[in-house]
Amino acid sequence: METRITKLLGIQYPIFQGGMAWVAEHQLAAAVSNAGGLGIIGAASAPAEIVREEIRKAKALTNKPFGVNVMLMNPNAEEVAKVVIEEGVKVVTTGAGNPAKFMDAWKEAGVKVIPVVASVAMAKLMERAGADAVVAEGTESGGHIGSATTMTLVPQVVDTVQIPVIAAGGIGDGRGVAAAMMLGAEAVQMGTRFIVAKESIVHANYKEKVIKAKDIDSVITGTSTGHPVRQIRNQMTKEYLRLEKEGASLEELEYLTLGALRKAVIEGDVVNGTLMAGQIAGLVAKEQTCQEMIEEIMAQAKVLLNK
Ligand code: TUI
Question: What is the pLDDT of residue 258?
Fold first, then answer.
């Protein structure tokens, strides 16, 4: 399935793996790239030198292109932006902010820049700033989210910009890929499905929570702080939402979430940890290798798109 995105990046399938904090490390990214998609290392809040090591480890595992996601709320974003150039990374995606101040340096270094946006206005701004494509991410996604749904956001972004659009949020199988293509997207980004990949280092307890989750098992925390985050409901979200309702201070809320994602991903604490996942978790049913996942998804999408 050739699109402007597969041609631009030199990848076989129009599938990106989301740059998920703590989850999207070098082994997952390399496995997705080796399977023909675009693996992405999530820099999240990591120090720049850790990101450099992750990039080098991924290079040792794959000769295929892979990307790095620069999370713009990271206080180390500026150094991470430099490391990406120094290490010769070919593709950068950004999230949780406006990457305009890094754009010129990346473009000069020949890095393809693909910001994640949650609105038409931001997509327009990114195109003007020189972005090569945009990921239009709907509120069905896990983690930090905007308010527009994928179904409404993708066609409106497609109608507004000339650059290619990658659809994200609520896509977990071939039906989702086919639907995204019908909306005008030229690739998709999936996160939640890849949490349960065999090559994903996520703790078995977290994987089990994603596999067992039903359609309405996620909640949005942080609405009051201006940083809404979708995650699977547990003791931690119950406590967080109670504190939010009581008008707790930012400090109190931050104290509760400090290190909570690491606790869930690495230690498997599914009670007090943060279980970021999208609404499509209800459809994610089993652990598979990235190769099996991508081949199954693409085969299903092709049948539907040929109909
Ligand atoms: O970035 C994401 N998803 C994320 S980042 C993350 S790490 C984190 N953990 C806890 C709290 C906050 C962050 C977990 N999940 N997705 C891409 C995305 N970007 N979604 C929405 C946006 C976005 C939001 C505002 C992009 C641009 C934007 O612009 C605001 C501005 O600066 O005008």
Answer: 87
With a 6 Å cutoff on the Cβ, whether 193 touches ligand 1 is: no
Task: Write the residue with the smallest CA distance to atom 4 of ligand 1.
Answer: 144
Closest CA to 231 of 242, 240, 220, 245: 220
Residue nearest to atom 1 of ligand 1 (CA): 95
The closest of 4, 13, 6 to 291, measured between CA atoms, is 13
CA–centroid distance, residue 299 to ligand 1 (Å): 31
Looking from the CA of residue 118, the nearest atom of ligand 1 is: 21
Cβ(11)–Cβ(48) below 8 Å: no
Does ligand 1 have an atom closer than 6 angstroms to the CB of 117? yes
Please tell me the predicted confidence (pLDDT) of residue 59.
98
- Ligand 1 midpoint to CA 102 (Å): 16
pLDDT at 241: 97
**Tens of pLDDT along 100-119?**
999 999 999 999 999 999 99
Count how many Cα atoms sit within 13 Å of the Cα of residue 270 in the half-sphere of its side chain.
15
Alpha carbon of 251 to ligand 1 centroid (Å): 20
pLDDT (tens digit, 9 = 90+) per residue, 126-183?
999 999 999 999 999 999 999 999 999 999 999 999 999 999 999 999 999 999 999 9
